[in-house]
Design brief:
Blueprint: E1 16-18, E2 21-23, E3 28-30, H1 39-47, E4 52-54, E5 58-59, H2 60-64, H3 68-72, E6 83-88, H4 92-103, E7 109-114, H5 119-122, H6 134-147, E8 152-157, H7 167-176, E9 182-185, H8 200-207, E10 215-218, H9 224-232, E11 238-241, H10 251-261, H11 270-288, H12 290-297, H13 301-304, H14 312-320, H15 324-337
Parallel strand pairs: 3-4, 3-11, 4-6, 5-6, 6-7, 7-8, 8-9, 9-10, 10-11
Antiparallel strand pairs: 1-2
Helix pairs in contact: 1-11, 4-6, 7-8, 9-10, 11-12, 11-15, 14-15
Amino acid sequence: MHLIKNIIFAKNWIVVKIDNIELPDFPLLLAPMEDVSDPPFRALCKEQGADVVYTEFVSSEGLIRNAAKSTMKLDIYEKERPVGIQIFGANLDSMLQTIDIVEKSNPDIIDINFGCPVKKVVSKGAGAGILKDIDLMVKLTAEMVKRTHLPITVKTRLGWDHESIKIVEVAERLQDVGCKAISIHGRTRAQMYKGKATWAPIAEVKNNPRMHIPVFGNGDVSSPERALEMRDVYGLDGCMIGRATIGNPWFFKQIKHFFDTGNHLPPISMQERVDAARRHLQMAIDWKGEKLGVFETRRHYTNYFRGIPHFKEYRMKMVTSDDSKDVFAAFDEVLDKFSSFQFA
């Protein structure tokens, strides 16, 4: 664990607040992930200790055109709260219209995506594309804050590339126009998801004496130890977790257990894994129908059952079948054949 020199953290171990939303000390946030952070998965993560969950990111242009895929992403449920709806776009009029639409779903938070590095988003000036125009980024945030009574938060990256990192200034400007919390991924857009996330610049944001809104870290929180490092070494207010939760909704519980005891939670049993996979698939089918429910849940199965030897045959059944009956049958086969398997 490397240390940050010459930084005296202003961290006070008190309740974290996003506007008037009170959260526990060092809250754990489920990141918005396309085709992952849907209601079924958010429900599982919430049950396992996620303190705030975010929807998949929603296109402002898709919403104002009433595109079915975009409007469906606005579905939220009481058991998820506090829940944030994340939107992306670069056109002010579209983003303001989107605020009006999103408010009708009654989320607790509206989050702006200023960090997605995907080319199809960036090419339109949205997501991380806006990191090339910080003035526009601040203007969009300011106008959206004025448009709604709901707290506006931002998720972004360190900068467009290594030469353009101005995240301390950017975060301060966003706070000054009314942003109520900021989540920062420790990579630039140029890095995409390659290399290691750098948390020191995020700590500099937190250590800025003018900052008073929560500063959440994101990127490479892959173990309870890494979450503890983000809290105790880098002094951040909480962490937003993405890829490490895919097929592993227990990750939030594992982190909290480690924080409380200093020990790792015992491995999740085969029965628990199969039960979660079955519930996940059934909830996905109930929400989005058989075809999409089966297809979009596939990405979780490798992690649900990671570590089982000679598992390829069963994994292939789970990720190639278009019939949920076959997938449920594969779950039963796995439980029957590997019931005594002990996960590490």
